[in-house]
Design a protein that fits this description.
The complex is a heterodimer of chains A (353) and B (294). Chain A is of the alpha+beta class. Chain A folds into two domains: 5-236, Rossmann fold (3-Layer(aba) Sandwich); 242-348, OB fold (Dihydrolipoamide Acetyltransferase, E2P) (Beta Barrel), CATH 2.40.50.100. Chain A has helices spanning 48-56, 98-102, 104-108, 113-126, 142-155, 172-189, 200-206, 224-229, 234-239, and strands spanning 5-15, 21-31, 37-41, 63-68, 71-72, 83-86, 160-164, 192-197, 209-214, 217-222, 244-250, 254-257, 262-264, 270-276, 290-302, 306-313, 317-324, 335-341, 346-348. The radius of gyration of chain A is 24 Å and the shape is elongated. Chain B is mainly α. Chain B has a domain at 79-261: MetI-like (MetI-like fold), CATH 1.10.3720. Helices cover 74% and strands 3% of the residues of chain B. Chain B is built from twelve helices and two strands. The longest helix of chain B is centred in the N-terminal third of the chain and has 34 residues, at 3-36. The radius of gyration of chain B is 24 Å and the shape is globular. Classes of the chains: A alpha+beta (353), B mainly alpha (294). The interface between A and B is medium-sized, with 27 and 18 residues.
């Protein structure tokens, strides 16, 4: 079975109004497994939207190829590609009813009216908007418009659904609800989803795999837990979740931190960076080898079940920790020692400049 | 004072002045015209306060007295005016629609300049601009000399004093009226909607027919109405570029008031134009309502 989407070495360079050039895609390759939910994650300007637009056909590639279901579509105009898009601001047709919006792809394809009506009914049921066929777009709430956009994009049975930050205009509660629904919908439909977002939390929740993009290149691609626990480079470590990045020196058998603490690790000698996630730091000293950091509490935020603590240490500057709320008082200005177990630590073969 | 009362007073305060203004300077003159159109013309201009339906009879067919006779020429002039005004709407739409599209896609600075250029003709007297067209269109004018120069024709073509010249002139005069409402609706057009349409499988032509045209229809209708109404009653363009050959209803009304001094008949003709415009507006309103309902 061919991959629903395969991108081979895609390149795209834009001319800037000042006459310079901007490399939006710099040799991007990506292959989707059947019915996979892949998220393109990155800061604005990283090329994720450009990548999505080259898949839908709104941008042409300067080099490289795009295959959908094993067929090259690189030279096809947008209207002949078997993919549909859910747009960032939905781009619904304001002059049409909900039903005509949803049935648009079928209307264009020249299907008969009864078939369209049936399909529109199914689609509205799928997104939970049954009975709103006759409404105009302006009579819908933001969340409902979002669903209409989704139903419209799915009505034509695309082989691949592209979603361009579709949840960014919704408020937080609705966004979380839609995240779950989207994921469930994708499982039910069994088609590939390519989802673009700059929201890392959204990416972690929904995706089978995440592709982290920066400077027009895929920095790392993998399952959310893999990316979070063992990022391949500093960019991914920093972009995905909160992180404490500590430079270490390697001598072949062990690693040594700036303040002299060390732990055993079998790696070639050189320099690297240690990743300590905030939740790895704790108040209790673990059994076995551990790293300890003593400093002064500069900030604390209570989040319900946790305390976020910013600890200023002499050797490493500010460390961020996420501590279970407990009996220990966390007063600003107080001295505190935090510990992290010194086994199974993740090192990144890259040193911050 | 209750809130409702205060709101009412505010409304009266806001709308009072314009209402009084419109009553005195718009509705009253109109009512005077309506009354005059049913009176007998005075011997030396003005009116005599005696009821007469013959002013309308002269236009519509039942007048058959010694002085007041039905003449089909009035109706045919009226019909010609309707035709020329409609053609003016069509030609200015055909010119303005692509132009508005083009300008709406420009960078902001160039866009403002382009819109300024569209409104620029308003800064020069209409009469002067129309006489410029006479210079261009007359047998020894630029256009004919150019055509003969490149050998397309050996003798000058009579552009001037024809339907063509009148439609050309009116199109020229009314393009800004058509352009501005069109531009307003085209500029609001969401580019993402066009992309969505092609994403869903529509060709450029299908996108135009199903998304662009319906979305800009309010601008088209608005532009058509505010072009059609002044075009229908226009008398300056036909008198400069149409000469005696292409008389429009506006010229006829002007003659009745200023030369023939038959105010009641002029008023009756003006009422005829008014009726046509009102019928048009009602039809448009109905269509818009039906569109909203569906």
């Amino acid at each position: 079975m061919p991959a629903p989407l395969e991108i081979i070495n895609a390149r795209k360079v834009f001319r800037t109004p000042e006459g310079g050039s901007l490399t939006a895609l710099d040799g991007v390759s990506l292959k989707l497994a059947t019915a996979e939910f892949v998220t393109l994650l990155g800061p604005s300007g990283c090329g994720k939207t450009t990548l999505l637009r080259t898949i839908s056909g709104f941008e042409t590639l300067d080099a490289g190829d795009i295959l959908i279901d094993g067929t090259a579509v690189t030279q096809l105009p947008a209207h002949r590609r078997p993919v549909n898009t859910v747009f960032q601001r939905y781009a619904l047709f304001n002059h049409m009813s909900v039903a005509r919006n949803v049935g648009y792809a079928l209307e264009i394809a020249g299907r008969d009216k009864r078939e369209i009506r049936t399909r529109v009914g199914e689609m509205l049921e799928l997104v939970g908007l049954t009975g709103l066929e006759k409404r105009t777009i302006s009579q819908l709430s933001g969340g409902q418009q979002q669903r209409v956009a989704l139903a419209r994009a799915l009505a034509g049975k695309p082989k691949l659904l592209l979603l361009d930050e579709p949840l960014s205009a919704l408020d937080k509660n609705l966004r979380q609800k839609m995240q779950q629904e989207l994921k469930a919908l994708q499982r039910e439909l069994g088609i590939g989803f390519v989802f673009v977002t700059h929201d890392q939390e959204e990416a972690l929740t929904m995706s089978d795999r995440i592709a982290v993009l920066a400077h027009g290149q895929i920095q790392q691609i993998g399952a959310p837990s893999q990316l979070y626990q063992s990022p391949a480079n500093l960019f991914t470590a920093d972009f995905l979740g909160e992180s404490n990045l500590l430079p270490v020196a390697l001598d072949g058998q062990s690693a040594r931190l700036g303040d002299g603490q060390g732990f055993a690790v079998a790696r070639p000698a050189g320099a690297a960076t240690l990743l300590l996630r905030p939740e790895a730091l704790g108040l209790a000293r673990p059994q076995g080898p551990a790293l300890s950091f003593t400093g002064v509490i500069r900030e604390t935020y209570y989040t319900g079940k946790d305390h976020q603590v910013a600890l200023e240490t002499p050797a490493f500057g500010t460390l961020h920790a996420l501590l279970r709320s407990g009996s220990t008082p966390l007063d600003l200005g107080a001295e505190l020692t935090l510990h992290a177990p010194a086994d199974d630590l993740h090192l990144i073969d890259e040193v911050a400049p | 004072m209750t809130l409702a009362r205060r709101k009412l007073l505010q409304l009266v305060g806001l709308l009072g002045a314009p209402t009084v203004f419109l009553l005195f300077f718009f509705l009253c003159p109109l009512l005077i015209m309506l009354v005059y159109s049913f009176l007998t013309p005075g011997l030396y201009g003005g009116v005599e306060w005696q009821f007469s339906h013959l002013n309308y009879g002269r236009i519509l067919g039942w007048a058959n007295t010694r002085y007041e006779k039905f003449d089909p020429v009035f109706l045919s002039i009226f019909l010609r005016s309707l035709r020329l005004a409609a053609l003016t709407v069509v030609t200015s739409l055909l010119v303005s629609y692509p132009a508005a599209f083009w300008i709406s896609r420009m960078s902001p600075g160039r866009r403002d300049f382009a819109i300024f250029l569209v409104t620029l003709p308003f800064f020069v007297s209409l009469i002067v601009r129309l006489f410029a067209w006479v210079l261009i269109l007359r047998p020894t004018g630029f256009l004919n000399q150019g055509l003969m120069g490149i050998g397309l024709t050996s003798e000058p073509i009579e552009f001037l004093y024809s339907d063509f010249a009148v439609i050309l002139g009116m199109t020229y005069v009314f393009i800004p009226f058509m352009f501005l409402p069109l531009y307003a609706s085209i500029e609001k057009l969401d580019v993402a909607q066009l992309e969505a349409s092609s994403d869903l499988g529509a060709t450029r032509f299908q996108t135009f027919r199903k998304v662009v045209l319906p979305a800009t229809m309010p601008g088209i209708i608005g532009g058509a109405i505010i072009t059609f109404i002044p075009a229908l009653g226009n008398f300056i363009v036909p008198s400069v570029l149409g000469g005696a050959k292409v008389l429009m209803i506006g010229n006829l009304i002007e003659q009745q008031f200023l030369s023939a001094r038959n105010w009641p008949f002029g008023s009756a003709l003006a009422m005829l134009v008014m009726t046509a415009v009102l019928v048009l507006l009602v039809v448009q309103l109905r269509l818009a309502r039906r569109e909203e309902a569906s």
